[in-house]
Amino acid sequence: MAQHGVEINALEAIRKVVSEINLQELRGVLTYCLPNPIAFRQRQTVMSHDFIAGGMNKTWPGKPDGSLTERMAYAVWTNLIKDNAEYLIDFHTDFRNSPVWIYYEAFGVSPSVSKEVADKAAHMAQVFGTDLLYLETEPLWEGKTLRGVAFDHGIPSIVAEIGGESHFNHEQIAMAYRGLINVMTDLGMISNQIQLPKKQTIIKWIIDRDKRIARAPNGGIFIPTVTIGDRVSKGESLGYIYSPRTFEKTADVIAPQNGLVFQILENPVVVAGQPVISVPEIIEDLFNY
Ligand SMILES: [Zn+2]
């Protein structure tokens, strides 16, 4: 958790799970760590004296003789994960008003990963129990994430994005707690009830941002007219821009494709061309009851 030092919501969820575990009844091992304690202490996404674009999550599996961040990643990878982990959940956070969601990789994206490992990751993603599942359908273009490296190594792995950074959101922490309990129950580590939402929606991650992201046609003040989870059609207006000088509406923000409103920019002051809403395509709805 908190490879990016400000992504702290999972800390509370894991604390609650750990405090409730009966060690006499636990089957298997639950390992957790703060892999980037310096950025965490600095309350920064990336540690200030080893700046890496994208931070620690672009450095896996690390390097024994690399920068401090790369050395820390290497230590975590070799001591805790590489030959020890059977499953992996990498906890992050997104924007402050983001929903809680799971990111995972489709079978076939990484050629070295077996169908069995991909199926286990997909199952874990669903069992975690978020309303939204974001499926990577094309390879990332740069660096290797912890999830990606672990997955390539044959460890079923998912990323859990738990709300926003630098604050505790207790509703979302409760979802992360529930997710961990669900996964541990499903793996037979603890005896509990798996609780899933009635409907989960799988949305499609693709590289080409212009296909999935609506941009501000011009600068000004951005007012969304949709909310997260809305289903929209290509060409539909998702909001508008007004001038902070005249208060006149100057442009509509248009959906780039059919999809689900996934992320909405928080700060309403925008410049021309700025991404303001992401609208990934919907792959499938899963119904649990
Ligand atoms: Zn992160």
Task: Tell me the name of the CATH class of the largest domain.
Answer: Alpha Beta
Using only C-alpha atoms, the radius of gyration works out to: 20 Å
CATH superfamily of the largest domain: Zn peptidases
Q: Count the strands?
A: 15
Let me know the largest β-sheet: 6 strands, mixed
Structural class: alpha+beta
In round numbers, the mean pLDDT is 95
User: What ligand species are in this complex?
Assistant: zinc ion
Strand content: 15-25%
CATH architect. name of the largest domain? 3-Layer(aba) Sandwich
* Percent helix range: 25-40%
Q: Helix count, per DSSP?
A: 7
Question: Which helices and strands appear, and what pairs or packs with what?
Answer:
Elements: H1 9-20, H2 37-42, H3 68-81, E1 88-94, E2 101-105, H4 115-128, E3 132-136, H5 146-152, E4 157-164, H6 170-186, E5 199-205, H7 209-212, E6 213-215, E7 220-224, E8 231-232, E9 237-242, E10 249-254, E11 259-260, E12 263-264, E13 269-270, E14 275-278, E15 282-287
Helix pairs in contact: 1-6
The protein binds zinc ion.
